[in-house]
Amino acid sequence: MKINIDENTRLELTAQQHAEGLFNAVDKNRAHLSEFLPWVGHMQSVANFSDYIRYCETLYEQGQEVSFVIISDEIPVGRIGLHHINAQNKCAAIGYWLAKSAEGKGIITKSCKALISYGFKEVGLQRIEIKAATGNLKSQAIPKKLNFTREGVLRQAELVNGQFLDLVLYAMLNEEWEQALLSFEG
Q: Which residues form the N-acetyltransferase domain (predicted)?
């Protein structure tokens, strides 16, 4: 599955063919990514990514996750996905990361818009959350731009580099997204 974002960027369903490209993106951005992402240190080889992708494929088959590789100018520059899909309550959380060289181009904002629409229309979700560390202002800027509601702070909710980080919780409901889309166009 592919979702075109713009003339230079697309989302491709995470697959084994992406292992080497994802490893290269992480390897070149370790300091940048590890500040807020706990898994970076575990990705030390293409084989590590290959194992992780097998796990992602299993979650996809079980309906628990839909994750994509962000391809910009034919190079993998990050990932985005609907994680922790709860079919009973029709909710999920968006997670994303991007190589430093790809920042500032609107890639994550545009990718989130496409993924949110996919989540509400194709997956049938009612609620989508985005969580970002209180110190990660770039990541928090995304749900703010997309008119998500800030619901609060989850105290010491994620262990990163031996420290517990507080996470800001943002959420969007299906009916709110329709209104948000109209405000983007106007």
A: 21-174
